TrEMBL record:
Similarity annotation: Belongs to the isocitrate and isopropylmalate dehydrogenases family.
Coiled-coil parts of chain: none
NCBIfam families attached to this UniProt entry: TTC
Keyword terms: Manganese, Metal-binding, NAD, Oxidoreductase
Alphabetical list of InterPro entries matching this protein: ICDH/IPMDH, IsoCit/isopropylmalate_DH_CS, IsoPropMal-DH-like_dom, TTC_DH
Domain Isopropylmalate dehydrogenase-like: 4-351
Protein name (database record): D-malate dehydrogenase (decarboxylating)
Top-level lineage group: Bacteria
GO MF annotations in UniProt: tartrate dehydrogenase activity
Species, as recorded: Vreelandella neptunia
Co-factor requirement: Mg(2+); Mn(2+)
Catalysed transformations (reactions): (R)-malate + NAD(+) = pyruvate + CO2 + NADH
EC number: 1.1.1.83
Pfam families the record matches: Iso_dh
């Protein structure tokens, strides 16, 4: 069975880390006998925008919908194209039209990476943040009235549907089910947001009935963010609405060190549409063109993609190779953000070699 992967490298270091992401995927595909077919696209980048006046061609949906997954680099080059245009015109279109209602980010402290949290070792931090990615607080229901007058009023409503809440909770419970600790934490704020958040809590209780082996707890978002910093070892799978998940999915990876290694996935679990896998970082104009970007975020995103396609063992092999290379700590191999003097290519090659070994 051939898996068709659409490659969109995007801008800046996206174009530099992508070849290393592909190198790792090719090594893994060979070792595990997986048939991957890559198709490269120029669109979804600021250069495409400057040439065509838009980020994507009109028929992008038709062009991409038949792929098994999208492998994305990073989009954005603020000196050429304003960020709201480059981001809304590409990535956010994919997330919406392909109903990628799960945003998934592993938060795992890797060997050789210094956590900004004092005294934390690999093994202390190893959890997932599951964010609802389509509704909630990020709704377009609302408006402005009496603009520019003393009566000026702005309203933006939170939208939670039973379908939308239940499907993200179900995904999070299923994920917790696959983990040794079998623990799920829900982010809430039902003391202050008195309609939608109690509803969210209710649906958590209801969903939990179907997963008696999962230990469930919940925290209000304010103390939850504090606990990410104070007690990151408490967490296994953390699920939140769009806004709370957004905050937690930046804070979680930040607790594990450099932004250069964090991966993420935007998932349509039913597979009605392709899911999208990308590093957390952006196009990093400050270091672009120097060949020094850390490729691990891209490579690890590829591991998440393989797992999504049904090859958990292959995905795990990539993560293990990353861990091995980081713990060897060879300064000639590692990039600067993790204390080395190597290049994007030297680090990418070392990881691919470990996958092959
Ligand atoms: P950024 O993530 O591109 O860079 C933030 C800082 O982290 C910079 O100092 C950069 O050098 C460093 N950094 C990032 N990735 C690295 C890597 N792989 N290795 C070593 N260092 C790395 O965020 P910034 O500067 O706020 O945004 C730059 C552009 O990227 C903007 O146009 C923004 O809209 C876009 N962006 C796109 C994202 C995406 O495609 N999903 C996500 C975040 C930002
Ligand atoms: Mg964010």
């Amino acid at each position: 069975m051939t898996h068709r992967i659409a490659i969109i490298a995007g801008d800046g270091i996206g174009t530099e880390v992508m070849p290393e992401g592909i190198r790792a995927l090719e090594a893994t595909a060979k070792r595990f006998n997986i048939d991957l077919e890559f198709t490269h696209f120029e669109f979804g980048s600021c250069d495409y925008y400057l040439e065509h006046g838009k980020m994507l061609p009109d028929d992008w949906f038709e062009q991409l919908k038949g792929f098994d997954a999208l492998f994305y680099g990073a989009v954005g080059w603020p000196d050429k194209v304003p960020d709201h245009i480059s981001l809304w015109g590409s990535l956010l279109q994919f997330r919406r039209r392909f109903d990628q209602y799960i945003n998934l980010r592993p938060c795992k402290l890797m060997p050789g990476i210094k956590s900004p949290l004092a005294g934390r070792e690999p093994g202390d931090i190893d959890f997932y943040v599951v964010r609802e990615n389509t509704e909630g607080e990020y709704s377009s229901v609302g408006g402005k009235m009496f603009e520019g007058t003393d009566r000026e009023v702005v309203i933006q409503d939170t939208v939670m549907t039973r379908t939308g809440v239940d499907r993200v909770l179900k995904y999070a419970f299923e994920l917790a089910q696959t983990r040794p600790r079998k623990k799920l934490t829900s982010a809430t704020k039902s003391n202050g947001i008195s309609i939608t958040m109690p509803y969210w809590d209710e649906r958590v209780v209801e969903m939990a009935k179907g997963y008696p082996e999962i230990a469930v707890d919940k925290f209000h978002i304010d103390i939850l963010t504090a606990n990410f910093v104070l007690h990151p070892d408490w967490f296994d799978v953390v699920v939140g609405s769009n806004l709370f998940g957004d905050i937690l999915s930046d804070l979680g990876p930040a607790c594990t060190g450099t932004i250069g290694i964090a991966p993420s996935a935007n998932i349509n679990p039913e597979g009605n549409f392709p899911s999208l896998f990308e590093p957390v970082h952006g196009s990093a104009p400050d270091i672009a063109g120097k060949g020094i970007a850390n490729p691990i975020g891209q490579i690890w995103s590829g591991a998440m993609m393989l797992e999504h396609l049904g090859y958990k063992e292959a995905g795990d092999a990539i993560v293990t190779a990353i861990e091995e290379v980081l713990s060897e700590g060879d300064a000639t191999v590692l990039t600067r953000d993790v204390g080395g003097e190597g290049t994007t290519a030297s680090l990418g090659k070392a990881i691919a070699d470990h996958i092959n070994a």
